[in-house]
Amino acid sequence: MAEAQSTAKRSRFDFGYFGYQLKRSPLTMVGLIMVVLVLIVVIFAPVFATHDPNAIDLRARLAPPSMAHFFGTDEVGRDIYSRILFGGRQSIAVGFFVVFLAGLTGTVLGALSGLIGGRTDTVIMRLMDVVLSVPSLALILALAAALGPSLVNAALAIAIVRIPFYVRLVRGQALIVREMAYVKAAHTFRAGRLHILRWHILPNTLSPVIVQGTLDLGSTILLASALSFIGLGAQQPTAEWGAMVATGRNYILDQWWYSGFPGFAILFTATGFNLFGDGVRDMLDPRQKAR
Amino acid sequence: MRKTVLDIDNLSLEFPVYKGTVSAVNRVSLHVQEGEIVGIVGESGSAKSVTAMTAMRLLPSESFRIRSGRITLLGQDMLALSEQKLASMRGRDVAMIFQEPLTALNPTKKVGAQMLGVIRLHTKLSEREARLHAIKLLTDMRINDAEEILERYPFELSGGMRQRILIGLAFACSPKLLIADEPTTALDVTVQKQVLQLLRQKARELNTAILFISHDLAVVSQFCDRLYVMYAGSVVETGPTREVLGAPKHPYTQALIRALPESAAPGQPLRSIRGVVPNLTDMPTGCAFRERCDSAFEACSAIPPLFSLDEDNRASACWLCEKEHAA
Amino acid sequence: MSAGKTRDTVLELSDISVRFPSGSDWLGRPTSHVHALNGVDLDVQRGETLGIVGESGCGKSTLAQVLLGLLQPSEGLVSGAAASDESALQIVFQDPQSSLNSRMRVWRVITEPVFARQRKSTMELRRLAVELAAKVGLREETLDRYPHEFSGGQRQRIAIARALSSDPDVIVLDEPTSALDISVQAQILNLLDELQRERSLTYIFISHDISVISHMCRRVAVMYLGQIVEIGDAASLLAHPRHPYTQLLLGSVPKLEEDGLGELIEETELPSNRRLPSGCFFFDRCSFATEACRQPQQLIDGVRCCRAEELALTAAG
């Protein structure tokens, strides 16, 4: 088989190849469609929204889904459909913010740890062990409570807890790359650490970090919603999925649409990102590449 | 006439890949007779390993398509055989050894436990008998302290020792055919020589046929009775080893031998083969070697069949040879 | 090597030993050592190709790392013109797959030794890459591709171009063609030959392949268990090996013209390099060993065997 592979050459950014892989994996395709759908809807929320998400209409309190209010209204008559569209902005922004922050910090720390080794490595890794040794949900709750309830603080708390995963990932990759012959070659022409970091370690850790990030998006959105649900995230009157589910809980028996639709939005988004993330991992996995 | 152990008849096989198909094996016919040591030599991309793996049906079934041909191994149609029958054949009637002996052994289990497992899977021997058999197999491989070796883990042993253990194990059930895929490529020359000697000795003793896959002309020249030279998925020349390597007929075989460092006069540059191996996803029409061949002429734009040169299994897939032979 | 002093020595190793700690007790103190090199003396002359042959575990790769300054020897001294100048030494590795970063474009790979040490404009670097690519037979339009898009032989050309880019005096070739097909090997060896003549390069050619060594090298050193057991003019050493190990090694090399495999070799296991033998390192495998061989052997007149002269006489008589 190895003989056949060497003849199949292609460039790194080949969207044709991307499409070819997508076609072979229908679940990834479904995930991609879900993600794109969510992103479009959320980005163009003002276009799709039928009402102002914060407009109170006490005459139409807790109205069931109808042509006027697609997903019904809440206890002060706000349109749930429009609130979900705008609320998605919060949830998804949190997702990207957390992944970006944790990914960046984790990559820097992990690369330093793997490249320099020795005491730096020990200090960084023990610090990460401390973070990992506390159950992550408990730590997030404690951090979010300490920082004060707000969506940004919730995001920060989640990011801090996610950092060790990226550090470990990048450090492991750095340790592998450090032993590659091309890094040994770089030592022979007396390349500095920064050069090795910039040209060898970072480019080679990028794809696993992207995979990890894609997979993390779904769970982060879920976590941020959970924090809002228990009141440590988004505060009233900001529309946010988790917060909506939380207030809707009081009406769950009679007005199912109140928490039902935001809940479904969370489920849909998290599932979409997870399916897509799994697919991306398979595509970038060198063992899968052989096929 | 000796019995034929393995018969591959006009096999063509391709791998579907992104943007097309790799025509990996093209109309390959080869056979191995009882007790015979047959070599397949070729460079990377020549499909020498793929051909052998297909004969054992070791390629994942969804990864390839058979375009034509039949494979008969010990009278069984290998392309139609059930998985169950296949599993009982592998290891008992047909054994395989590979280039890297470490990957063929489980790193977490002792050598003895692994050998006994294989032996008892294919025979009805008791634990004690199997153990004695394992010790005999290792002793035959010139492993002096066989009992002690059984208690060791694979990583504690040298590459040469591991390969000797695997060869011993391959002969555990006196197979009719042993497929050896570059078994000595990872070994040092002094070890290689010993491993080859033991391999041949044991095969002759049990009348086991060997299909020996290698890129090393010199090794093949010393080890094999008969050989097939492959290039870009096709057999280009075949015959008794001495004759093929001593008086090669196909321009590719000739060029390959000329390119060896030992063929060059001191101080003279080596005679390399110009160009590169053709892209298997986009094969040129006609002879696959045409674009690199110095003696190509008009006829070469058609694919040359394997022309029989004499009764002695000697054949070459070149229009030039056909012309000479006819003249 | 007294005659060597008058010639132009670019690199000289004197009594180099390298030990790696292996295993440690609960305080982190090493419990034993792996003896990779055990007293290597070697001089490299300007413009020559020095071959280093040996089997796995003989220390030839460790030697390469010491030569390149990647490894500090536990004992001994590396000296010479090339040892002090950092860009004077370059290396070409065996595996062109792992020696080129697949995330760098080829022109970047080729010029890496230059831009790793000093700022240069992209224009300058590209011009250098084009020039070097032409030297090693790569087409200019392929410079923007990534290494994995090339075949093994082409990748090795890229690696050679990279080695040339800092304009070195000495290139260490660590099994440069072992991963290549025969027809491609011939192309690469010819290229190396041409480049050497054109740029008066010095090669240190490490290989296990005797036929390649004998084609490329004028002088050759045979290594066994971290020692040089025999060194001398390639043609005469390979034709008339004097050390019993060299004889065994050369006798094991398969030859195209030969039929059969000869007599069975019994012992092939190398002694452990954790506990070195007290006398001659080849004692256990040597069929000529006597009492005198229990003493440490010195490299005298290019051979580390006290019975070399005696054995040569018996062979002649």
Automatic annotation (TrEMBL), chain A:
Positions in coiled-coil regions: none
Chief location bin: membrane
InterPro entries (alphabetical): BP-dependent_transpt_permease, MetI-like, MetI-like_sf, OppC_N
Keywords: Cell membrane, Membrane, Peptide transport, Protein transport, Transmembrane, Transmembrane helix, Transport
Entry superkingdom: Bacteria
Domain named ABC transmembrane type-1: residues: 92-277
Transmembrane segments: 27-49, 92-116, 136-161, 256-277
Membrane topology: Multi-pass membrane protein
Family, per entry: Belongs to the binding-protein-dependent transport system permease family.
Name of the protein: D,D-dipeptide ABC transporter permease
Species of origin: Nitratireductor aquimarinus
Name of the gene: ddpC
